[in-house]
Design brief:
Elements: H1 4-7, H2 11-24, E1 25-33, E2 41-51, H3 54-64, E3 68-71, E4 77-81, H4 84-97, H5 103-120, H6 127-138, H7 152-173
Antiparallel strand pairs: 1-2, 2-4, 3-4
Helix pairs in contact: 4-5, 5-6, 6-7
């Protein structure tokens, strides 16, 4: 059953937003290093659309009922959704109903969706789950001149060190 808010969106508005996001939207998964996280990594999911004219972004924000608007000094505006609850409860159901036409955006949304559900299932808190998320992310936005602060190798090395430290701590406690 579709959420009540989603059923209230007029078809023409929903498809307009979907087409707009197909051309201007972006699904991203980033990793933030931090000692406060179980494996030393936080998985950050983000959906955003950038545009010089803020009008469409305001309509998208109001229609989806989530996210925030940001402004850069160069006149570019962003609609950004970066909290997992809104990604899972608003963004994913919206694009499940109003799907993309282009192959590349369908593919990126599908990969993003898989990662979001792995995070919802707390798989990112296990080494195997985090590696699965990293592998899926490698296929996200392929060939687009992407810049990643942390690549697959960085994450695997630090995750390995983190799990070795955990293993050592637990074996020392048994002595």
């Amino acid at each position: 059953m579709k959420p009540h808010w989603l059923m209230k969106i007029p078809e023409n508005i929903g498809w307009y937003i979907s087409g707009f996001a197909d051309g201007e939207g972006s699904f991203n998964v980033s990793f933030r290093k931090g000692n406060g996280h179980r494996l030393g990594w936080q998985v950050q999911l983000t959906f955003n659309i950038s545009q010089r004219d803020i009008t469409n972004l305001e309509i998208i924000k109001d229609t989806m009922g989530c996210g925030r608007l940001q402004h850069r000094r160069d006149g570019v505006h962003y609609f950004v959704v970066g909290d997992n609850r809104s990604i899972l409860d608003r963004v994913i159901p919206f694009f499940d109903k109003f799907s993309f036409f282009s192959y590349s955006k369908k593919k990126n949304f599908s990969l993003f969706r898989k990662i979001a559900f792995l995070v919802k299932q707390r798989k990112h808190l296990t080494p195997a789950g985090l590696h699965q998320i990293v592998a899926i992310r490698e296929r996200l936005n392929e060939g687009r001149g992407r810049k990643r602060k942390y690549n697959k190798e960085n994450i695997e090395i630090i995750t390995k060190k983190s799990s070795e430290t955990t293993r050592q701590t637990s074996t020392q406690g048994r002595r």
